[in-house]
Amino acid sequence: MRNWLAVLLSGLPRRRGTRPAKGQGEVASTNTPAAATGGPGTPSVSRFPTPSLPADLGTPFVEWQQDSAPSRSTPMGPRELRALRLLDELLATDKTPAELLPRTPAVVPQLLNLLRQDDLPLAAVSERVSKDIVLTAEVLRLANTAHYRQRSQHGVTDLAQAIGTLGSDGVQRAIARVVLKPLYEGRGGPLSGRAAPRLWAHGEHKAAACAALAAQRGIAAFEGYLAGLMHNTGWTIAWRAFDRMDGGVSAPFSQSFLQQLVLRKDRLFGKAASAWDISAELGRLGQDVLDHGLEPARSPLAAALATADREATIAMLAPAAADDVDDDPRLQPAA
């Protein structure tokens, strides 16, 4: 795998002159100056523990998502504080409002049911896939990518041949991509609209990395793939909530706001994942992340996801640096 740790230690190139924020990991509270809290008597936002790993990728990653100017080194404004309190309220409710996700959570397990049936004969799988034109197109597209094309000397045009080329794992991934991509539709407003295509590209990279890391830890690779592909729904929920907020927030954001936003997006994912009846493994992951955050989470799948997330972020922000790092077995994640 790519050595994300070596890239991080060598220093990620700063994006468009962005300077590292002071006091990374600090949380907004009633002890902050009045200019940052919106004045005396303003309710504080919730405290979250600082991640055990550096959070210095969060600010440039949000700037990349929104294609925005560098973040401001000014205190949080009233709208930003109100936006954080909105996320805190969502985390405190029993369930995330379905309208904040492009596809209602109840539909996801139903559509993913086919993924669990990996013992179906080829003819049965072909018949089911052929009933969905979008899924058929994705299976054919995936079978003709460089990774799978080496198994066939010629282009794959037949569905049964494509399924045979992909194998069970490839078909599962194709179905997952078709089922989960609507989670990243950017129809909620300007913030979610700008972020959606980039979050999907980031999620695809993260899913592949998380699948490999999960397998190293004795977890089914497909569980890791699903976790990586779904993880950015935390960002989706946050951006859609901000788009629906009266008055809203807009980029460029303050650096202190972005630090706090990063701490909440993982818990938003955890809240959604723990409620979706997709698998016991993903349910445990969601609860773990909801309770502790991602990087302090305790499960092996959470550790794989945290590493994959950082690796994918580096690949999006500094692809040349990620590709140029030499392989070093000492930097491989622990099994």
Write structural notes for this entry:
By secondary structure, the chain is mostly helical. It folds into two domains: 53-69 and 79-102 and 188-319, no CATH class; 103-184, no CATH class. The chain contains 16 helices and no strands. The chain has helices at 4-10, 34-37, 58-66, 78-92, 107-111, 122-130, 133-143, 146-149, 159-180, 190-216, 221-230, 233-244, 255-275, 280-292, 300-317, 319-324. The longest helix is centred in the middle third of the chain and has 27 residues, at 190-216. Residues 15-51 are annotated as: Disordered. It comes from Aquincola agrisoli. This is HDOD domain-containing protein. Residues 101-292 form the HDOD domain.
Q: Outline, from the CA principal axes?
A: elongated
Number of E-state strands: 0
What Rg do the Cα atoms give?
21 Å
Largest sheet features: none
Estimate what percentage of residues fall within beta strands: under 5%
- The chain-level structural class is mainly alpha
Low-confidence stretches: 1-39, 50-54, 320-335
How many domains? The number is: 2
Give the terminus-to-terminus CA distance.
13 Å
Mean pLDDT: 76
- Pattern of helices and strands: HHHHHHHHHHHHHHHH
Q: How many individual helices?
A: 16
Helix content: 55-70%
Outline of the structure:
By secondary structure, the chain is mostly helical. Helix content is about 60%, strand content about 0%.
